[in-house]
Amino acid sequence: MTMRERLAPLGLALFGVASLGLALGLDSYWLLILTLYALAVTVGVGLNILIGLSGQMSFGHIAFYAIGAYLSALLTLAGLPLAAALPLAGLGCALLGGLLAIPALRVSGPYLAMITIAFALVVHNGLIEWRSVTGGANGLMGIPLPQVGTLDPALPLALGAVLLMLAALLFYWSLQRSGWGLAMRAVKASEIAARSLGVNPVQTRTLAFALSAGLAGAAGALVAPVLMFINPAAFPFSQSILFVLAVIVGGAGMLFGPVLGALVIVLLPELLADFAEYRLLAFSVLLLAVLWAAPRGVLGSLGRRFWRPRHEPVMEQPDNGVLQGFFAGGAQNGLSVVGIGIRFGGVQAAQQVSLQALPGSITSLIGPNGAGKSTVLNLISGFYRTDSGSIQLGRELAGQPAWRIARAGIARTYQTTQLFGELSVLENLLVAFQQGAIERPWPRQQASRKALAIQLLALVGYRGNLHVAADDLPHVDRRLVEIARALASRPQVLLLDEPAAGLGRQDTDHLATLLQRLAAFNLAIILVEHDMPLVMAVSQRLLVLDAGKPIAWGTPEQVRCNPRVIAAYLGGTEYQAQPRAQAWAGSRDAVLHVRDLCIDYGAAPVVEGVDLVVNPGELIAILGANGAGKSSILQALAGLHRPRGGSIVLDNRSIESLDASQIARLGLALVPEGRQLFGQLSVRENLLLGANVRQDSVDADAEIAAILTRFPRLRERIDSPAGLLSGGEQQMVAIGRGLMAKPRILLLDEPSLGLSPAMIGELYDALAALREEGVTLLLVDQMANLALQVADRAYVLETGRIVKQGSAEQLRGDPQLEAAYLGAGAAA
Question: Does the reported pTM lie above 0.70?
Answer without folding.
Answer: yes
